């Protein structure tokens, strides 16, 4: 069995070594320009078009991340580069769900416990009491209720936040899951976000979700709401956020993802006092967990078994 690994930075060696430990009989190679040789499996992140050219024997393509917009393109334009009939498989959790839950909980609790306000006071040398918030006044809306979104929503619920969540299609569950109020489809979107104090974005990036974090949506949240974006920069209309911060409609934003990464030095977010910036670290791809998951799926496919995590390229996730 031949496995070909591609990463835009060319640093495939640690993945080659680690995969070889799981799949001892496999021939594993890192992609080099001009490599059009057969491969049974491709393991990749943000591939160029050449990597995806039709390749003899190809059985599946594994994405080294949860979001597949790096393969399909922001607007799904890359879908037609995929070799026909070859499933694209995304990473499921692989240690990311716990990291996401920690990051989002930390950001939500920071706003709820007003640590952002105390930070600002400290910078002014101010010792000043702030009335505590009540959890009942802090409904959280989580956009995206897949593997990561559901884990995040449950973590927030465990802290006592009233949590609502939205996903595009209903998957058998009713209107509640573990105390989380669930909403679906276009009809359920407003009910999920209306009056929310914290908006958490975990949506996949698709043509339908690009620019979803915009002035129209911000106006539906509670006055002085907070935004936590851990999905993709292209979900956010940046000028709308800056205007909502100016007007006070949004009181603070924690952003881990940006349209251009690294965030350019002259970007206004760097100077926006109520924007917290982190460098796309909310949930890192952990090599050991990732490789174990991919190797397990390759072994299952070789045994002729079905696997989970197969992406529907027309939906984009
Ligand atoms: C992912 C990411 O999609 O790292 O997994 O952003």
Write up this protein:
The chain is elongated. Helices cover 29% and strands 17% of the residues. Helix 2 (69-72) links the parallel strand 4 (60-63) and strand 5. With 317 residues, it is an alpha/beta fold. It has two domains: 2-94 and 285-302, NAD(P)-binding Rossmann-like Domain (Rossmann fold, 3-Layer(aba) Sandwich), CATH 3.40.50; 96-277, NAD(P)-binding Rossmann-like Domain (Rossmann fold), CATH 3.40.50. The longest helix is centred in the N-terminal third of the chain and has 17 residues, at 96-112. The strands form two sheets. An eight-stranded mixed beta sheet has the order 8-9-7-6-10-11-12-13. The protein has a five-stranded parallel beta sheet with strand order 2-1-3-4-5, covered by helices on one side. The mean pLDDT is 96.
């Amino acid at each position: 069995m031949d496995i070909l690994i591609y990463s835009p930075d060319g640093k495939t060696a640690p993945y080659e070594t680690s995969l070889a430990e799981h799949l001892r009989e496999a021939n594993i190679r890192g992609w080099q320009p001009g490599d059009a040789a057969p491969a049974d499996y491709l393991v990749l992140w943000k591939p160029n078009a050449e990597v995806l050219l039709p390749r003899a024997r190809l059985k599946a393509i594994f994405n080294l991340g949860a979001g597949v917009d790096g393969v399909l393109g922001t607007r799904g334009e890359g879908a037609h580069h995929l070799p026909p009939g070859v499933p694209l498989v995304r990473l499921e959790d692989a240690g990311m769900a716990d990291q996401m839950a920690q990051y989002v909980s930390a950001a939500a609790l920071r706003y709820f416990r007003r640590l952002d306000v105390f930070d600002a006071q400290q910078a002014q040398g101010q010792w000043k009491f702030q009335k505590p918030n009540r959890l009942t006044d802090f409904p959280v809306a989580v956009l995206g209720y897949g593997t990561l979104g559901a884990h995040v929503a449950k973590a927030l619920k465990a802290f006592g936040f009233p949590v609502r969540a939205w996903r595009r299609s209903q998957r058998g569950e009713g209107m509640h899951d573990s105390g989380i109020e669930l909403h679906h489809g276009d009809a359920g979107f407003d009910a999920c976000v209306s009056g929310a104090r914290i908006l958490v974005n975990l949506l996949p990036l698709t043509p339908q979700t690009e620019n979803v974090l915009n002035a129209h949506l911000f106006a539906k949240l509670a006055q002085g709401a907070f935004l936590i974006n851990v999905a993709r920069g292209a979900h956010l209309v940046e000028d709308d956020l800056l205007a909502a911060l100016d007007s006070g409609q949004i009181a603070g934003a924690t952003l881990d993802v940006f349209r251009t990464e690294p965030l350019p030095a002259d970007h206004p977010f760097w100077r926006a006092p109520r924007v917290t910036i982190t460098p796309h670290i909310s949930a890192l791809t952990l090599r050991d967990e990732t490789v174990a998951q991919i190797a397990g799926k390759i072994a299952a496919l070789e045994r002729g078994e079905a696997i989970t995590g197969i992406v529907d390229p027309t939906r984009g996730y």
